[in-house]
Amino acid sequence: MDGAVTTTGLTKRYGQVVAVDDLALRVRPGEIYALLGLNGAGKTTTIRMLLGMVKPTAGAVTVLGRPVATTGHDLWAEVGHLVETPSAYPDLTVRDNLRLVARLRRLPATGPVDDVIDRLGLAPYADRRAGKLSLGNAQRLGLAKALLHRPRLLILDEPANGLDPAGVVEIRGLLRELAATGTTIVLSSHLLAEVSRLADRIPQSALQCHGRESSLRHSSGWSER
Ligand SMILES: Nc1ncnc2c1ncn2[C@@H]1O[C@H](COP(=O)(O)OP(=O)(O)OP(=O)(O)O)[C@@H](O)[C@H]1O
């Protein structure tokens, strides 16, 4: 049980809908691990349970060696996340949104903020109000917020959402670079081509799409990048 993320028997039901069914996964430290599934397969629900945002109907989640249900803020100092459409203060600039996150995380207001603006290609938009960003740049801002504190573990729901092809390539490069320096990454996608270029592993999964066969793909031992 010494994975960066482990789940056992993880299940979430909404009335008659089984969003996630008996999911067992084990993410090793330093790998890029992809949850691949069709719309409705349960990816977002799984990610929300990994982050403690949704309470499982059954099963358990351990993140960085600690059970999620009982973790406090100390764990979140080591985790960065992006879930669905990232939110930001629309009337604040990109830089001020990041400064605010830096303050909440007790980081210096300049160094890490400038650094993440550069890494995410946000320099041309740094003084633009977040509410005026394109979907792709809003996604970059969401990723910047997730990366600001240099977390050991990144949990990203559809990180390529809204990005143009060049942006997808850039973010892929960035995630690979982070993984190469020891960051563990769990991400979800409905695009096989995208995750096949990035992930170390795509799990066997008991996730079920509502009314359909299990729709998460499996590639055991796949280590191509
Ligand atoms: N809060 C909720 N209440 C009721 N049903 C829900 C809720 N959240 C998710 N579901 C249902 O659970 C199933 C899985 O949804 P989920 O959003 O996790 O899938 P997904 O793989 O992330 O899909 P997408 O790629 O479309 O975001 C769907 O049938 C969805 O309608």
UniProtKB/TrEMBL annotation:
The keyword DNA damage does not apply. InterPro entries: AAA+_ATPase (IPR003593), ABC_transporter-like_ATP-bd (IPR003439), ABC_transporter-like_CS (IPR017871), P-loop_NTPase (IPR027417). SMART domains: AAA. It holds the Pfam family ABC_tran. Residues 5-222 form the ABC transporter domain. GO terms for molecular function: ATP binding; ATP hydrolysis activity. Keywords: ATP-binding, Nucleotide-binding, Transport. The keyword Nucleotide-binding applies. Belongs to the ABC transporter superfamily. This is ABC transporter domain-containing protein. It comes from Catellatospora chokoriensis.
